[in-house]
Amino acid sequence: MASFVDSVRLFARGGAGGAGAASFQKRKGKPRGRPNGGNGGRGGNVILATDPGISTLLRYDRKPHWKAGDGEHAEGDLRHGRNGDDLELTVPLGTVVRDEDGLLIADLVEPGQRLIVAEGGRGGRGNASFVTPDRRAPSFAEQGEYGDDPTLILELQLLADGALIGYPNSGKSTLVASVSAAKPKIADYPFTTLRPHLGVVAIDGREFVLADIPGLVEGAAEGKGLGHEFLRHTERARVLVVLLDPSDLQLDSPERQYDVLVHELESHSPDLAERPRVVVLNKIDLPGDHGTAWAVERGLELFEISGVTGEGVPELLHRIADLTEEAEREAPDRESFVLHRPLGAAFTIERKGNEWVVAGRVAERAVNLDDLTNPDAADLVAKRLLGTGIDGALREVGAEPGDDVRIGALVFTYDPDAAEDQAP
């Protein structure tokens, strides 16, 4: 049996930046003329984009790894590398984006919304960019940077006005198919619906979106069956439509079904206890006692319908439309949310074994040159380490002259005196 997919782990990687070039203009009698190395291209970004025509995250369950295009390397004669192509990944409306630790990054509910989730690496600068009055002919260039590579959790929460809640085989899919243009696959066995379906209902000039939430079972809020995954789709619905099945195929009576379903909803989210609710007894076309006395005793408004014959359905749809309009007036549409995170520490320093390990984009950029054996390049790195505060931070954490310091793949000997010599 195929499994429902509404939560996936996505591994995104921005494209790598291209390397800068170290080259010189060649002129007769001057084998090394003016520096003319171009800059490398920027790596492409990975972008999530909402698309109303997309209804599932299944694509990313089947293929979780995605990478944007790399930037091209630069060449001489100031020929810059081409930027890498951005990679746009389409997701359904209602997609929630979290980081690997579960922190909410974005809640995407608007059509055409775009979110950069992995930035491409910066392209390296060529030697023409390093010319200064004191450095007339630099013979080094920068390497390109790697792109971001976050692990993301994508969750789908459907955007619907009304959510049909009921046991497996209670007739939700049949009802959606009969009152809208949606054509869900329907079969006669438990858990027939393995993914929610949306249908646009139009009645007497009124429209609303009705979602068929796959069948729940007792214990769904604690993760039993597939219900825990399906319950999240009720969180955005304005109105909850509790569909009960009086047929003898069900082990529980309509009253018992109602108690179980309401308990599961409230256990999943206390907010759902306050959500407008419509109680519906389906399949009244079947012979026998449908058992409605309990609803009267509880003071519940019970709609009796047949999703097959259509009996009682217009009255139900008008009631859902009424409650939807009331909820819309009282609570406006949920707005999109994008977390603008504050920048973290520029770099970190940690003692690992016999080395001091300096990590962070600032530290990596400080040493990101193609030839550190070049005296000019080594001098520039020393100035960068001093200017970014890395040299002073190493001193504060107890680094001593002669200690090994690692930044990325580079290991060098800590020499605070040499860095101070580079101070302006």
Concise overview:
The protein is an alpha/beta fold. The protein is 21% helix and 22% strand. Strand 16 (348-352) and strand 17 form a beta hairpin.
CATH class descriptor name of the largest domain: Alpha Beta
Question: How many structural domains are formed by the residues?
Answer: 3
The count of DSSP E runs of length 2 or more, i.e. the number of strands, is 19
Rough outline = elongated
The CATH topology of the largest domain is Rossmann fold
How is the topology of this model organized?
Blueprint: E1 7-13, E2 46-50, H1 58-62, E3 65-67, E4 87-91, E5 95-99, E6 104-108, E7 114-118, E8 151-156, E9 162-166, H2 172-179, E10 197-203, E11 206-212, H3 227-231, E12 239-244, H4 254-268, E13 277-281, H5 293-298, E14 302-304, H6 313-330, E15 337-338, E16 348-352, E17 355-359, H7 361-366, H8 375-387, H9 390-396, E18 404-407, E19 410-413, H10 416-421
Parallel strand pairs: 1-3, 2-4, 9-11, 9-12, 12-13, 13-14, 17-18
Antiparallel strand pairs: 1-8, 2-7, 5-6, 5-8, 6-15, 10-11, 16-17, 18-19
Descriptive report:
- It is a single chain.
- The chain has 424 residues and is of the alpha/beta class.
- It has 10 helices and 19 strands.
- The strands form 4 sheets. The protein has a 6-stranded mixed sheet with strand order 3-1-8-5-6-15. A 6-stranded mixed sheet has the order 10-11-9-12-13-14, with helices on both faces. A 4-stranded mixed sheet has the order 16-17-18-19.
- The termini are far apart.
- The N terminus is likely disordered.
